[in-house]
Automatic annotation (TrEMBL):
Identification of the protein by name: AAA family ATPase
Pfam families: AAA_15, AAA_29, OLD-like_TOPRIM
Source organism of this protein record: Bacillus mesophilum
Molecular function GO labels: ATP binding; ATP hydrolysis activity
Domain named AAA+ ATPase: residues: 24-342
InterPro entries assigned: AAA+_ATPase, AAA_GajA/Old/RecF-like, Bact_Antivir_Def_Nuclease, P-loop_NTPase, TOPRIM_OLD
Length: 570
C-alpha cells in the first residue's frame, strides 16, 4: 500500500490546502527557501500515522486558523485500488479519521482493515531535532520490525540462511501449540477463583440492597491464541557506540551528526540484508539529512540515500544541492519546489533522455563543481560556456543582488547535457555560448562547430529558453580580442573592477553589463551590442559559417594544389 498523494490544510504555514503528488518513483526531494514548509510536509505525513493522545496531539498554535480544522489527507494505492483517508483535528480535542466515503472510521467501517494496515506501517522519521526518546523509539521500531519479519518467515515456512532456522521453527511451533493449552489451564484456574469472588460479592450486594435477584459476575478475558506480535511486545533493543574516549555510550547521547548517520546507515544495511521484510511500502522521511555533517559526509550520505531509495520509498527535504546527484541512474528521483499551494515538480528522472556521453558529462561536472546542482534551488538559470563569462556574470550577480544561478558548462557538449536536464521541468533559462567561427580553424573544424551549435538549438524546446552567441568568442564579442588562457581571469577582473582606465576596457564592461541586464530582465534581443547574437533559427548559425567554410575549403584546395605542384617539380 503506497502513498500516492498527500494534502495538508490549515497546518502551520499551509493555511490553504497544499498538495503533493507522488509517482511510483522511490525518491522525492523537497527544495525551497526557508520557511516555505518543506519540513512541515514531512512532519504532517508523520502526524497522519501517529496515534494521538492528549499529551502528544497537535498543539493549538499549529492551527493557521483555530476556527477551522486541520485536515491531513492521504491517498494510497494497492494494485489498481485507491483509498483516501482523512485525519481531522479540532482545536482542543483529539483527531478523528475518516474513510474514502468521508464517514468516520469505526469498528464496522468497510475500510477498517485496510486503514489499520496503513496506520500500523508508520514511516521511519528522522529529524535534526530528534530527542533521546525519539531515537530510542525509532531503534525499537526497527528492532521490532526485524523480529516480526523473522517470525513471519518462520510462520510462512520461508527458509533463510540462518543455521538455526530449523531449530527455531520447531521451537516456535511448540510454543504456538503449547501457548493456547497453557492459556486454557490458566483461564480455568482463574475462572474458579473469579466464580467464588462473584458469588461472595453477589451475596453481599443482595443483603445490602435487600434484593435476591442481584448478581455480579466477574468474567475472565478471552485470548485468540499466540501471535508474532506477542513476542515483539516482549522485546527491547538499544544501540551503543564504542570510541577511544568511552565504551558502551548510548547512541542517543552521541553528537547529532553521528546519531543521524548511524540511523541512516542502519536502515540502509538492514534493507540490503533483507532484515526489515517487505520495505516497498515502508516510507522513510528525513528532514534535512545534511544537517550537522561536514561536506565529505554529505557526499557519502548522498550515495547512501540513492541506495536506500532503490529499495524503499524515500522522501527528504534539503537545502543541499550535493544530495541531488545527476550522475546516478535516473530511474528513482523527483525534485519538488515547495510553492504556496502545491509542490511544483521541477525534475523527474527519465533514463531514456540521457546517453552514455550525457552520463559521463554529468559525472565530470560533479567532480569539477560539486554545487552544479544549485540550479534546482534557483529562480532563474543561465548556462555559460567558458570561465570568462562565468566570472563576469558572477560579478554582476553579486553587485546587483539578482537571484540567478550560473552554470559553467566548459564545452558545447555539456551545454547539451545540461539543456536535456533542464528541459525536464518547465523553467526559464538562457544559454550563452561561443560561435567559434574563427578563421584560423580548418573547414572540417568549422563544420563541426556549426553542428555543435545546431545541436544546442535543437534543444530549445520552448520560448522560455533563449540562446545567445558570442562572435566568435566572448572576449572578441566584448572587444578585447584574443586573450591567452593564462591571462583571461586577470583581464576580466580588471575590466569588471575598472582597474584599467583605457577606453577599450570601459567599453567592454558596458557590453558585459548590458548582456547581463538583457538576460536577467528579459529584455528584447535587439538591444544586444555588436558581437552578440540572439539565436532563433539554424539560419542564424549558418550565416556565421557557410561562407567561411566555403572560403576555407577553397583556401585548403589551393594549398593542396600548391603542395602537389611542388612535389611534381621535385
Amino acid at each position: 500500500m503506497r502513498i500516492t498523494k498527500f494534502s495538508v490544510t490549515n497546518y502551520k504555514v499551509f493555511s490553504e490546502k497544499f498538495t503533493i503528488d507522488f509517482s511510483a518513483d522511490s525518491i522525492a526531494i523537497l527544495t525551497g527557501r526557508n520557511n516555505t514548509g518543506k519540513s512541515t510536509i514531512l512532519e504532517a505525513i508523520n502526524c497522519f500515522f501517529v496515534k494521538d493522545t492528549k499529551t502528544n496531539t497537535i498543539a493549538s498554535d499549529c492551527f493557521s486558523d483555530t476556527n477551522n480544522e486541520i485536515i491531513l489527507e492521504a491517498e494510497f494505492l494497492s494494485g489498481e485500488e485507491s483509498h483516501t483517508f482523512f485525519k481531522k483535528y479540532q482545536a482542543g480535542s483529539l483527531p478523528k479519521y475518516y474513510g474514502t466515503d468521508t464517514k468516520e472510521i469505526k469498528a464496522k467501517h468497510p475500510e477498517k482493515d485496510i486503514f489499520d494496515e496503513i496506520i500500523n506501517n508508520k514511516p521511519y522519521y528522522i529529524t535534526p531535532a530528534m530527542t533521546t526518546e525519539d531515537i530510542n523509539q525509532l531503534i525499537q521500531t526497527m528492532y521490532s520490525q526485524i523480529i516480526k519479519s523473522k517470525l513471519e518467515k518462520i510462520e510462512l515456512e520461508i527458509a533463510d540462511e540462518d543455521p538455526d532456522y530449523e531449530i527455531m521453527k520447531r521451537e516456535y511451533d511448540q510454543i504456538r501449540k503449547a501457548y493456547p493449552i497453557f492459556l486454557k489451564k490458566l483461564k480455568k484456574s482463574i475462572d474458579l477463583v473469579l466464580d467464588k469472588v462473584s458469588n461472595d460479592v453477589s451475596g453481599d450486594l443482595r443483603k445490602l440492597f435487600s434484593n435476591d435477584e442481584l448478581a455480579l459476575e466477574v468474567l475472565g478475558g478471552e485470548s485468540d491464541g499466540f501471535s508474532a506480535s506477542d513476542l515483539v511486545k516482549s522485546t527491547s533493543s538499544s544501540i551503543v557506540i564504542d570510541s577511544n574516549r568511552q565504551k558502551q555510550m548510548p547512541l542517543a547521547n552521541q553528537g547529532t551528526g553521528l546519531q543521524r548517520m548511524s540511523l541512516i546507515y542502519l536502515i540502509q544495511n538492514m534493507i540490503q540484508n533483507k532484515l526489515l521484510g517487505n520495505t516497498e511500502e515502508k516510507l522513510l522521511l528525513i528532514d534535512e539529512p545534511e544537517a550537522f555533517l561536514h561536506p565529505e559526509a554529505v557526499r557519502a550520505l548522498s550515495r547512501s540515500l540513492y541506495e536506500i531509495g532503490a529499495r524503499m520509498p524515500l522522501m527528504i527535504s534539503t537545502h543541499s544541492p550535493v544530495l541531488i546527484d545527476l550522475a546516478e541512474k535516473h530511474t528513482s528521483i523527483q525534485v519538488f519546489r515547495v510553492g504556496e499551494n502545491k509542490a511544483i515538480q521541477l525534475y523527474k528522472s527519465a533514463t531514456t533522455q540521457f546517453d552514455d556521453n550525457d552520463i559521463k558529462n554529468m559525472k565530470i561536472l560533479n567532480y569539477v563543481d560539486s554545487y552544479i546542482n544549485e540550479f534546482f534551488f534557483a529562480d532563474k538559470i543561465v548556462i555559460v560556456e567558458g570561465d570568462t563569462e562565468y566570472i563576469a556574470f558572477k560579478h554582476f550577480f553579486k553587485e546587483k543582488n539578482v537571484n540567478i544561478h550560473i552554470i559553467r558548462a566548459r564545452g558545447k557538449a555539456t551545454i547539451c547535457t545540461l539543456m536535456k536536464i533542464l528541459n525536464q521541468f518547465n523553467t526559464n533559462y538562457d544559454v550563452i555560448h561561443d560561435v567559434d567561427n574563427n578563421y584560423k580553424f580548418s573547414s572540417k573544424t568549422l563544420q563541426a562547430q556549426l553542428t555543435n551549435c545546431k545541436n544546442i538549438l535543437k534543444l530549445k524546446i520552448s520560448n522560455n529558453i533563449r540562446i545567445f552567441s558570442s562572435v566568435s568568442n566572448f572576449e572578441e564579442a566584448i572587444g578585447i580580442g584574443e586573450i591567452e588562457n593564462s591571462k583571461k581571469t586577470q583581464t576580466i577582473y580588471n575590466i569588471l573592477n575598472e582597474v584599467a582606465t583605457s577606453g577599450v576596457y570601459k567599453e567592454a564592461r558596458k557590453k558585459v553589463e548590458n548582456l547581463f541586464d538583457i538576460i536577467t530582465n528579459q529584455k528584447e534581443i535587439n538591444q544586444l551590442d555588436d558581437g552578440f547574437k540572439g539565436i532563433t533559427s539554424e539560419q542564424d548559425y549558418e550565416d556565421f559559417f557557410i561562407g567561411l567554410i566555403a572560403e576555407k575549403k577553397k583556401e585548403e584546395r589551393e594549398q593542396q594544389e600548391q603542395v602537389n605542384n611542388e612535389e611534381n617539380v621535385k
